Amino acid sequence: MKHPHISLVLAGVLSFGMAVFQAAISCVPAWSAYFGARGELLSNPALLLAAGLLVSIILVIFGLYGLSGAGVIRRLPLLRLGLLGIGLGYTLYGINVVPQLLVLAGIVSAPQPVLMRNVIVFSVLLVAGLLYLTGLAGGWKRLSARVAGGVQGARST
Q1: What is the C-alpha end-to-end distance of the chain, expressed in Å?
Q2: Which of 29-38, 76-85, 106-115, 135-144 tops mean pLDDT?
Q3: Is 38 a member of any domain?
Q4: Which of 11, 29, 78, 148 has minimal CB crowding within 10 Å?
Q5: Is residue 87 part of a domain?
Q6: Residue 28's domain spans which residues?
Q7: Lowest-confidence range among 43-47, 86-90, 143-147?
Q8: CA Rg value for the chain
């Protein structure tokens, strides 16, 4: 990719969108039930809201790392490691879309029907993960800790 920072901006925006979505569904137990929240959370709306907001905060942090890697905001600590972890996490979770697509295509049979909402969620996670990893790979040198601080050019002889 010619401009890897665009991948990281898109990845960050996707993370922010997921954070808003998570916060919204955690406010309404019926929405949370639709997306697979467990009974313990559904029976305690305060716990459901707290858990949902905690996940939203984590997703916002992921979004900030994407924007930091793109150079939109200041450099965050452990940037390359953070982008790698976020990208791998999203990608590994999102790869679950593959068997679901195989079932939908009729290549593989499954004991339960595939829910389209799961296909969409896993697809978004896979795309976000690949955007993080693509942006990281394309900007690996630029994201070096020493280069970012401008320390590299200041050498004493």
Answers
A1: 38
A2: 76-85
A3: yes
A4: 78
A5: yes
A6: 4-147
A7: 143-147
A8: 19
Helix (H, G, I), strand (E, B) or coil at 79: helix
Tokens of 10: 């898109």
Contact yes or no for 9/67 (Cβ under 8 A): yes
What distance in Å separates the CA atoms of residue 69 and residue 6, rounded to the nearest whole number?
A: 10
Rounded Cα–Cα distance for residues 139 and 154 (Å): 22
Q: DSSP letters of 91-103?
A: HHHHTTHHHHHHH
User: Is 156 within the bounds of a domain?
Assistant: no
Number of domains in the chain: 1
**Residue 30 resides in a domain:** yes
How far is it, in rounded angstroms, from Cα 36 to Cα 39? 9
pLDDT digits (tens, 9 = 90+) for 128-142: 999 999 999 998 888
